[in-house]
Amino acid sequence: MLSRARAWSSSSSSSSDTTPLLHRLRSPSAAVEMASAAAAASSATAAVARVVFLGVDVGTGSARAGLFDEKGRLLGSASSPIQIWKEKDCIEQSSTDIWHAICAAVKAACSLANVAAQEVVGLGFAATCSLVAVDSDGSPVSVSWSSDARRNIIVWMDHRAVEQAERINSRNSPVLQYCGGGVSPEMQAPKLLWVKENLRESWSMVFRWMDLSDWLAYRATGDDTRSLCTTVCKWTYLGHAHMELARETDSRDMEACGWDDVFWEEIGLEDLVEGNHAKIGRSVAFPGHPLGSGLTHAAAQELGLFPGTPVGTSLIDAHAGGIGVMQSVSESESKADVADEDAICHRMVLVCGTSTCHMAISKDKLFIPGVWGPFWSAMVPEYWLTEGGQSATGALVEYIVENHVAAPLLANRAASQSTKILMQYLNSVVCKFGLLEFGCILSERSPIADPKSKGMICGLTLDTSEKHLALLYLATIQGIAYGTRHIVEHCNSLGHKIDTLLACGGLAKNSLYIQEHADIVGCPIILPRENESVLLGAAILGAVAAKKYSGLQDAMKALNAAGQIVHPSKDPKVKKYHHAKYKIFRSLYEQQLSHRSIMTQALQ
Q1: Please, which residues have CB within 8 angstroms of residue 355's CB and are 6 or more apart in sequence?
Q2: Which of 180, 265, 506, 523 has the fewest CB atoms within 10 Å, i.e. is most exposed?
Q3: Mean pLDDT score, 387-400
Q4: What's the farthest any 2 CA atoms get from each other in the chain?
Q5: Among candidates 390, 386, 487, which has minimal Cα distance to 179?
Q6: How far apart are CA 487 and CA 302, in angstroms?
Q7: What pLDDT score was predicted for residue 433?
Q8: CA 210 to chain centre
Q9: Please, are residues 156 and 130 in contact by the beta-carbon 8 Å criterion?
Q10: Collapsing DSSP states into helix, strand and coil, what is residue 479?
Q11: Is residue 35 predicted with pLDDT exceeding 50?
């Protein structure tokens, strides 16, 4: 902050020094000279006065940085790849590697957008809900069978802790009702238990266990305050313990009073309760709360920014996408929102990437079996969050397409027609054939919440043509959309009133994917003006930390904006077709349970 203050002070001082000179200089040439100098000074001041918000998003394969102006428009972005190790169910990354990738991405984005360090007034981090282990010096501690100290992150989609999750769920702890009835192996408690049971030396060395986005904010500021988003969604923290004591406008670190010590003791992790929960978080804050004194000198130098630049409490990447898109409504709807505070509760955000998160909020606490939550203030402060999801969506589409025998041929044909992306070419094939043949794929996480469930394909033939690949591609997209319909119907049957979807992420750029979702769910889908909603959501955290807005909701209203609106087909035949196919989709899981039971009995 001192550097920025000096920049302003220098500009102001040169302006005041010219005032007495203007009284002494009488010649026209001198007047012109002084006018030019004043104009230059004014121009320099205007350049410095530009307000830019920086968002950083760490996904599964890369770290990205995006710069946004005060209207929420993207000025420039850049990305840098990150390393990942995969060995069966164990998937690991390096916090050191990720931080270096972030620094490279931030510097590249600032250079590409021609943004100076002093123009960046606030910074926010979003990341996957991966688990980071560091010692008392902040150095990485291995969470890998390999003992490689670089590998100190258990990645969000790692499934090594399935057995630990089952044991935790068998205890039926009261905290589990806020996780849809049970923890997933992708949450942190099962992973922590796995490390304690399997890597005793590492367990004894760890001084801090942190969600990745919280670790990034800690690495940037030296403040290890945790976010209500990460702790509530992934650590069984009961955010509503603060409900009567805290409001978003009361921006401060709050003593972590939402840990259930009995839960941690019952599952065998009683040592995490010690030291007032020092290893897992002694203080929490609303997303966007300013941390510490902003960027430390060391972090600022590494990022190419100014020391003291405000940094907001972080968000999980999908939730940052929710913040970046949830108020992306038309101007008329935005005005209606002012009169109807509950309008935002009629929307569900789909953050569509490798996996898809389905997020809706409510003023009331709604328990939805098989769907995570309700989480108090985990995304929008003072609202309850319901979070559904599908573990493999973008990953599933890629897998189905790339493993088909016709894929190389179609890829070459797409390239010869100057179509850069194979999916775009497949969309044109689907349109060409008007495919309405039978084909159905099962792919769900919510509301079934069965980690043992497998994908299913119904309707396979020996056909290897491009038409068959297009049919399989369409069936995959429809299967994902039927899963979304199942989530929406399930949530609405238990108290939600969802009638509008908002979509962001890589798959939201696929027109066929979005239209099929609109047709199948029966809701209009709003696409945001800015494609990079997760980066925008992260940048909003920085804007709030910099006190440019009174709170997260005000910042969302100012920086979110609607783009295209996709409506469901009005053709009754399309509705009838999807209604029939949805019934088949729902029956596939029941068949799978029956088959599993038959084989379990046979193998006993």
Answers
A1: 157, 389, 390, 391, 392, 393, 394, 395, 445
A2: 265
A3: 89
A4: 104
A5: 386
A6: 43
A7: 58
A8: 17
A9: yes
A10: helix
A11: no
| Cα separation, 404 vs 400, whole angstroms | 7
Report the share of the chain in percent with pLDDT over 70: 86
pLDDT grade for 129, boundaries at 50, 70 and 90: very high
Among the ranges given (223-227, 390-394, 566-570), the one the predictor scored with the smallest mean pLDDT:
390-394
Arithmetic mean of pLDDT, 146-150: 95
pLDDT of residue 146: 96
The first and second tokens of residue 598, run together, are 């038959």
3-state helix, strand, coil in the chain (%, to 5): 50, 20, 35
Q: Tell me the C-alpha distance between 577 and 437, whole Å.
A: 10
DSSP letter string, 527-570: EESSS-HHHHHHHHHHHHHTTSSSSHHHHHHHH--EEEEEPPP-
Q: Which residues are paired to 384 by β-bridges?
A: 362, 376
DSSP helix/strand/coil, 510:
coil
Please tell me the distance from the alpha carbon of residue 401 to that of residue 403, in angstroms, as a whole number: 6
How many of the other CB atoms lie within 10 Å of CB of 500?
16
Conformational region of residue 382, where left means phi above 0, alpha means psi within -120 to 50, and beta covers everything else: left
For the chain, list the domains and their CATH numbers.
52-324 (3.30.420.40), 347-392+484-577 (3.30.420.40), 395-481 (1.20.58.2240)
Take residue 572 and report the two structure tokens written for it: 């009754």
Are 385 and 552 contacting, i.e. CB atoms less than 8 angstroms apart?
A: no
Q: Give CA–CA dist 604/393, Å, rounded.
A: 34
Cis-peptide, bond into residue 447, ω within 30° of zero: yes
For β-strands 384-390 and 356-362, DSSP reports them as antiparallel
Residues 6 or more apart from 492 whose CB is under 8 A from it?
A: 498
What is residue 342's predicted lDDT score, i.e. its pLDDT?
Answer: 86
**Distance, CA of 526 to CA of 348 (rounded, Å):** 10
Strands (E), 212-258: 226-227, 254-255
Q: Would you say 368 and 494 are in contact if contact means Cβ atoms under 8 Å apart?
A: yes
What would the pLDDT profile of 55-77 be if each residue is shown by its tens digit? 999 999 999 999 999 999 999 99
Q: Output DSSP code: residue 242.
A: G
